[in-house]
Amino acid sequence: MMVSVKAWFAFCQEIMGTQADRPLDPNEPLWAKLEEEWLAMRYICALVEDRGIAVESARVYFASVQGWHAREHGVKLAGGLKLERLPQMLKGLRRIHGEFARPLRRGISPLMLKKAMDFLLDPNDPADANVRAALATALQGLLRSAEYSGENNAAGKKLMLLRDDLVQLTDKQMVVMMHPCKNMHHLGGKTCPLVIGAGGTHLDAVWEVANMLKVDPTPVGAGMSTPLFRVPSTNKPLGYAFLQDLTKRLMVSIGEDPSFFGTHSYRIGGATALFAAGANETVIRTMGRWSSDLHRLYVRACFDQCCEWTRLAGSATVSEVSGTFDEVDYY
To answer: Which among 163, 201, 300, 308 has the fewest CB atoms less than 10 Å away?
Structure first.
């Protein structure tokens, strides 16, 4: 059993006098879910204040507990409720107890990515075309790292986008069905539509995906076994380590310091580009699927506006993408 889970059992049983296994039906009333959130907050505080664990380490401990609970019971703590108060409590703990400085991560602007891709990645090469499509989609779609990279494990295979998940591709837009946000995986299935509009001035993920399918077509009848973004020679998904290293090489090619960039820089850059294009915080959080339920309602009610915002994300000129929305790490 992982150290974090052992600590959770000890906290629940020895300190709180309650069960560590806490599968809660997502249909339970809100007050019951909030009591579970309170227990989770107490656990993190106990790690920091009683055991002297660093705040960031305590956050990782709790994330591990959530992963264990989801694997064991099919649902995270608090019935899968998005724990809105927990990130704010962590910020408060950092102010009180301090924390090791996190490495600064900058966002990648649409123009930066376009210049770097044109310098290093040939759109006519099948392998490069897959990478270009993945990175453009990641920025315009505000994707989390795990949503466009793939790992050869159970969790990675569950999240991995497949060619058959691309349910619409026209000269105006594309729609990809994906899993809900990370706090709502208990809902099951790829039920959240990612909608991206075509025609971005600097980046156009719709064109990149169409080009990818032209130079690297899906094998007949293999759409459910072919990663959306893949290595053509092996049919394996683009790996996280590969994309992390490639991101740094792309930034070096345009004269940027690679230490400031990683796979999360596309999500940060996409959010910042939306802000530069005039989107308010509510739109940015909705487009970034901080709440998948809200995102699905927005797509249903405002499909054309969703296409327009993503097109603008590929068109925005951003003078300095230094991490305006670096808090996306917590959502």
So the answer is: 300
